[in-house]
């Protein structure tokens, strides 16, 4: 039986596969399944040629396996293959006629989750007629929405299935362009009931469709131009649509409700029920439209508006001055002063803007809102709270390693390496059984196509460690060999691709990223050598405090261990430890260094820990001293280091400070305004004592692990920021997921690090205030809030960065003003003062008015009112110039009066 299948496949006799399968019993077909799977893998292997690639099997061979799979497998084994067999409709028809699988109906019904199928609505109707499929409404609606033709072939199509389309349209695609004119035509011909379709369009607002599909139904409703009589009849559905999560749906409902506000049948009380949520929306158009409808109700109705007045108070959730001003005017004009309205407004009193407050004097207490000053906490990079939670035993390490595999970055990675050095030799007959799931996870992770470079190193290290344990504990770890063999087979199928890099084998031979990763690979190799030799001398660079710090005390203790054991530490490990060392209060540790260390260790740390000390002693390891100098005092040139041979490294890399400017690229319409940062090219030099830094600055490729390098240079972040800015922030309209991910990860790392900013830090933060991604901007605001609280932020420098960008309209001003209104305004007295300084120095960079400048000036006016301040005297000349612009005249005059 198997031999016959091999024969049909090898001789490519596609016409013989169906007769062969027909003669087999159900049990015989089941026994063929493993063989079919094996043959499928073989013919699916990729064969590379000089200019292209193809699978090992021919078209006939693939057809043979497709038919055999369909006939012999159950649904679980066949999987979700909605394409291969169904390409040949005639062949599928023949197979179904003599042997439709019992799972076929469920299989076809499940196809609504597929991205693509090779069958369509007409095929499903045919299969249903023959009894092969009992189609669910979801299936019919989904497939009909993809096919706006042949609607008259079956009477059920327009009578029944079209309404399924309204309830269960395609999830993956918006409707094709033919549908709207077709629907209009069918309604005009009375083939589709107009009233029912209008209702279905409105119901789509709350059916959790994607934005495109919901938008299609809203467009369909608008195109049909419902009359006022129809709108009154559909009023309940219009009201229900106000609760939609899609802003287009809500705006559509509001636009049509506005048309019938004057009608006696308009349900004011029902509308007032929805009004608080509408006015709390983050979408300004929704809030503005809701206020227009509300005002129209007040204009036409004298009764039944009490609840509406109470609901209107929710408008003051918004910090947009135009929204608050509009709501205040409606209240003043239409709502009499009463205890109820005062009570309703009292819940939002703290949020009412200073410039709106006087107009509501009768309704709320007009006293200036008093905010508390921030209770300043001293910023501490290392503390008891941030102490790293290291594994304390071999058992702990076994539970920790899976976490380290799952977590990105270097924090868990470093602790895992430190734990392996410390406890790898502690396995015994009982505890070693805990290792199998760790080994399995490492194999499963490393076998994936895309694996983070730190994960490649860690998983490879765990696997090689596991293979060495297998020799010691062959009985307890007998399954490891099977797991490893399967992983090798998986990797072998990928090695045919030229882009695939081998991840299994000796750790020194694998690829784990480009130049930037070489120091980490070097340290990982040293760790494996320590494991093999039983050397438990700790790494110097293992973090002691979250997220990346090595405490000065730990650095002294670790150097002392190497000193006492007369062992030489690894050069790159020493440099990484120095780079990560927290330089807070290091002068307090000088006495300890004097007592515990001697020789070069002592001289090095006396220089490193004392910000005023000059380097003294024997410079046996130039790379250590150079790293200590760059980390401690990045802008200083030490004459003592002049003979070290690092003069060929551009000064930008040593100082972490780069020249940058925002430029108007008049000739380039695709990138009209660019952030231009000058990062020199650098090629790695062959030298006896290379710097850890050199590997990073020599990396020229886009590098997904770049944010992780913040944990390797936490004291000197300029080079990391420069790389991210050059690669990902040169243009504010960049929308690629990859670049957005890098920027977000960098912003989150900076927030986690809680370190005062350097020049490049201010450039990065001032730039991401304007990023197109809302989460990135929100993270920027969180960094600003925390740094202001700790009083470690220079808002003059930060304002200058953002102002220089917006002077040329690098990004829409609205991104920044929305951020200020929603996250940065009125947090505390100190934050308002900081915000005033930030806005002042943004505005000082401006020359001619930019789009939405009025919005910044409105917020500036509000902040000045809150701080009881006046506009900066250096800004008044600009304000006098800007007031010539008609849209800015009013706000400029208000600011000049301050």
Automatic annotation (TrEMBL):
* Residues annotated as domain DUF6493: 2-285
**Transmembrane stretches, start-end:** none
Arranged from A to Z, the UniProt key words for this protein are: Coiled coil
Domain DUF7825: start-end pairs: 653-897
According to UniProt, the name of this protein is DUF6493 family protein
Domain DUF7824 as annotated: residue spans = 385-650
The protein's matches in Pfam families, at most eight in alphabetical order, are given as: DUF6493, DUF7824, DUF7825
Q: Which organism is it from?
A: Chryseobacterium herbae
């Amino acid at each position: 039986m198997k031999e016959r299948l091999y024969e049909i496949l090898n001789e490519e006799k596609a016409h013989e596969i169906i007769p062969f399968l027909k003669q087999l019993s159900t049990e015989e077909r089941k026994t063929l399944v493993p063989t079919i799977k094996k043959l499928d893998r073989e013919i699916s292997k990729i064969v590379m040629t000089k200019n292209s690639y193809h699978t090992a099997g021919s078209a006939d061979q693939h057809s043979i396996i497709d038919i055999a799979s369909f006939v012999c497998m159950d649904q679980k084994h066949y999987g979700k293959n909605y394409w291969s067999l169904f390409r040949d409709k005639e062949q599928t028809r023949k197979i179904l006629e003599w042997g439709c699988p019992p799972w076929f109906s469920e299989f076809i019904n499940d196809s609504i989750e597929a991205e693509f199928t090779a069958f369509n609505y007409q095929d499903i109707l045919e299969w249903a007629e023959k009894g092969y499929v009992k189609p669910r409404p979801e299936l019919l609606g989904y497939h009909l929405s993809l096919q706006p033709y042949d609607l008259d072939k079956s009477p059920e199509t327009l009578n029944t299935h079209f309404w399924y389309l309204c309830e269960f349209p395609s999830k993956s695609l918006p409707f094709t362009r033919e549908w709207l004119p077709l629907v209009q035509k069918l309604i005009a011909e009375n083939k589709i009931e107009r009233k029912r379709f209008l209702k279905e369009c409105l119901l789509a607002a709350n059916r959790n469709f994607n934005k495109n599909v919901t938008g299609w139904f809203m467009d369909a409703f608008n195109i049909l131009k419902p009359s006022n009589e129809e709108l009154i009849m559909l009023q309940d559905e219009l009201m229900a649509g106000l609760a939609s999560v899609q802003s287009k749906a809500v705006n559509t409902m509001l636009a049509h409700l506005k048309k019938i506000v004057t009608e006696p049948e308009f349900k004011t009380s029902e509308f007032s029920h929805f009004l608080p949520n509408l006015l709390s929306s983050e979408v300004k158009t929704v809030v503005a439209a809701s206020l227009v409808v509300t005002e129209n109700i007040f204009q036409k109705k004298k009764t039944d508006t009490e609840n509406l007045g109470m609901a209107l108070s929710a408008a003051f959730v918004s910090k947009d001055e135009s929204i608050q001003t509009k709501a205040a005017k409606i209240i003043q004009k239409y709502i009499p002063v009463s205890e109820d309205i005062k009570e309703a407004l009292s819940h939002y009193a703290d949020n009412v803007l200073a410039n709106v407050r006087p107009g509501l004097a009768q309704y709320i207490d007009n006293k200036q809102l008093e905010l508390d000053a921030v209770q300043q906490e001293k910023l501490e990079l290392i503390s008891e709270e941030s102490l790293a939670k290291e594994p304390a035993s071999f058992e702990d390490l076994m539970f920790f390693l899976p976490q380290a595999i799952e977590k990105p970055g270097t924090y868990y990675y470093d602790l895992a390496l430190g734990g392996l050095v410390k406890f790898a030799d502690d396995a015994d007959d009982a505890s070693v059984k805990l290792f199998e799931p760790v080994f399995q996870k490492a194999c499963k992770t490393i076998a994936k196509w895309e694996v983070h470079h730190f994960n490649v190193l860690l998983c490879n290290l765990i696997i090689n460690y596991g293979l060495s344990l297998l020799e010691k504990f062959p009985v307890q770890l007998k399954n490891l060999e099977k797991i490893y063999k399967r992983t090798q087979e998986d990797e072998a199928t990928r090695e045919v691709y030229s882009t695939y890099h081998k991840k299994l084998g000796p750790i020194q031979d694998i690829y784990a990223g480009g130049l930037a990763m070489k120091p980490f690979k070097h340290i990982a190799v040293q760790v494996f050598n320590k494991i093999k030799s039983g050397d438990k001398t700790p790494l110097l660079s293992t973090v002691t405090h979250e997220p990346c710090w090595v405490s000065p005390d730990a650095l002294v203790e670790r150097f002392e261990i190497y000193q006492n054991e007369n062992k030489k530490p690894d050069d790159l490990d020493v440099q990484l430890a120095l780079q990560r060392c927290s330089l807070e209060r290091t002068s307090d540790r000088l006495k300890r260094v004097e007592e515990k260390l001697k020789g070069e260790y002592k001289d090095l740390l006396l220089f490193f820990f004392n910000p005023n000390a000059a380097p003294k002693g024997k410079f046996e390891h130039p790379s250590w001293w150079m790293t200590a100098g760059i980390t401690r005092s990045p802008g200083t040139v030490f004459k003592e280091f002049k003979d070290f041979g690092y003069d060929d490294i551009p000064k930008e890399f040593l100082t972490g400070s780069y020249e940058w400017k925002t430029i108007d690229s008049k000739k380039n319409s695709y990138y009209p305004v660019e952030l231009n940062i000058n990062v020199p090219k650098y090629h790695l030099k062959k030298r006896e004592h290379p710097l850890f830094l050199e590997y990073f600055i020599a990396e020229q490729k886009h590098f997904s692990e770049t944010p992780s390098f913040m944990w390797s240079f936490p004291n000197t972040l300029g080079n990391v920021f420069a790389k991210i800015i050059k690669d990902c922030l040169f243009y504010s309209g960049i929308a690629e997921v990859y670049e957005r991910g890098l920027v977000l990860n960098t912003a989150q790392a900076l927030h986690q690090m809680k370190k005062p900013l350097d020049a490049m830090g201010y450039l990065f933060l001032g730039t991401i205030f304007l990023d197109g991604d809302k989460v990135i901007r929100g993270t920027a605001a969180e960094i600003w809030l925390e740094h202001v609280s700790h009083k470690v932020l220079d808002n003059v420098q930060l304002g200058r960065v953002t102002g220089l960008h917006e002077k040329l309209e690098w990004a829409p001003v609205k991104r920044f003003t929305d951020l200020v209104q929603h996250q940065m305004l009125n947090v505390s007295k100190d934050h308002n003062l900081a915000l005033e300084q930030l806005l002042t120095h943004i505005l000082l960079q401006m020359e001619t008015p930019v789009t939405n400048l009025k919005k910044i000036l409105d917020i500036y006016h509000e902040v000045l009112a809150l701080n009881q301040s006046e506009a900066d005297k250096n800004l008044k000349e600009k304000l006098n110039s800007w007031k010539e612009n008609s849209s800015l005249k009013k706000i400029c005059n208000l600011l000049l009066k301050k």
